[in-house]
Specification:
Number of strands: 10
Largest sheet: 6 strands, mixed
Shape: globular
Order of helices and strands: EEHEHEHEHEHEHEHHEHHEH
CATH class of the largest domain: Alpha Beta
Bound molecules: pyridoxal-5'-phosphate, zinc ion
Structural class: alpha/beta
Length: 364
């Protein structure tokens, strides 16, 4: 259902991206009842909570949750970088590619900063679908290589915006099926399972910290906790701390009404999304949950990367932003009475070891 004009669509009607054909608004999943009865493993454990379930599992979901005491807080690291293609995107892609498969689609296109492309190429390959991935030329080489390894065709664009234009062009003129993860409610559905898994282990944390690019992860995880709250299983909701880079920070600008002060956040390539389609929804979640938007720069991210590696977590720079943000807001959170914090580690550093090595040996 369209979040703007209320127009409704069946899942099978949607073939050219997940925007309302009448007004261009983003679409939400409505009209079915979520039932909490976890059974089995992977994200299919939560079939009765989800609008669709995957045709084929590559082992996505069921990621470890590591607990530790940290400067007077109990923190929980959700190791989403251990998903099959090395990022949390697999939860959404498993849904999206399964849906395309059920529609009988044989070629898909996606625009990405990298991780969704790797994930789409991997799941497409496993289901015999051809994948074409449009991405910025300056994306990490390791990510492009991973896409090619899974048989995806990489089209290099001069910018993230041009990558989107290429994807739309291939969809409208050449009959590709557009995965459209920035808008797709199927990705939000998949990310809900992060909250379900956390809830089964520890209940609801006082706060959660997530990197925010398109804000899909933020929205999906929060909606997952909200589902459990609505159904009467959870008794509260977490404060949402969203992290953006100082250079591209649309959520920060909307929540606080001002531009960030400057600096560089180039290495956080996964959260450089200037116009997130679901921005209003993310603003509402940050505000209503009593949360924050925290900005981090390259130096802070490198520092966080180093500390995470010291602890044994090899993540990519975009992913280290949550730890950089924790360092910045720890006192603020404590003053609000926060005792437990969920940090989602979103993407693996193993796709770019050369880059990580360069970052960690050239500074500090
Ligand atoms: C490693 C990593 N973390 C976080 C994000 C941001 O997720 P979202 O676009 O759902 O806000 C991305 C997006 O590409 C990513 O690749
Ligand atoms: Zn509409």
């Amino acid at each position: 259902m369209c979040s703007e004009c209320g127009a409704t669509y069946g899942f099978t009607d949607i073939r050219q991206g997940f925007r309302c054909a009448k007004c261009g608004g983003v679409l939400d999943v409505k009209g079915f009842e979520r039932v909490w009865s976890p059974a089995g493993s992977g994200i299919s454990r939560y079939s009765s909570m989800l609008a669709l379930t995957p045709v084929k599992s590559l082992g996505e979901g069921c990621t470890p949750l590591v607990a530790m005491e940290w400067r007077g807080l109990r923190i929980y690291l959700k190791l989403e970088h251990l998903n099959p293609s090395g990022s949390f995107k697999d939860r959404g892609t498993a849904m999206a590619i399964s849906h395309a498969y059920r529609l009988g689609i044989d070629r898909v296109v996606e625009d990405t900063s990298g991780n969704t492309g790797i994930s789409v190429a991997m799941y497409s390959r496993a289901l015999g679908i051809r994948a074409c991935i449009a991405m910025p030329r300056d994306a990490p080489e390791g990510k492009k290589l991973a896409i090619r390894l899974f048989g995806g065709e990489v089209i290099e664009a001069s910018s993230r915006a041009e990558a989107t234009a290429i994807a739309i062009d291939l969809t409208t003129k050449h009959g590709y099926y557009y995965i459209d993860h920035l808008s797709s409610p199927l990705y939000i559905e998949g990310y809900r399972t992060i909250a379900y898994e956390v809830f089964e282990r520890i209940g609801v944390p006082d706060a959660m910290i997530v990197p925010a690019g398109s804000c899909g992860l933020l929205i999906g995880t929060y909606r997952g906790f909200e589902d459990l709250y609505r159904l009467g299983f959870a008794r509260r909701l977490p404060r949402v701390v969203a992290v953006q880079g100082v250079e591209v920070a649309p959520l920060y600008e909307k929540v606080y009404g001002g531009k960030p002060g400057g600096g560089s956040s180039r290495i956080a390539d996964g959260i450089r999304v200037p116009n997130p389609p679901r921005l209003a929804e993310a603003v509402d979640i940050v505000r209503s949950s009593g949360g924050r938007v925290v900005l981090v720069d390259d130096n802070e991210i490198v520092h966080a990367l180093r500390e995470l590696i010291d602890m044994g977590f090899v993540v990519e720079p975009t992913s280290a932003t949550v730890y950089a943000a924790l360092i910045k807001v720890v006192d603020d959170l404590k003053s609000l009475g926060v005792e437990s914090v969920l940090l989602v580690l979103t993407g693996s550093g193993l796709k770019m070891l050369d880059k990580l090595y360069g970052l960690l040996t050239s500074s500090g």
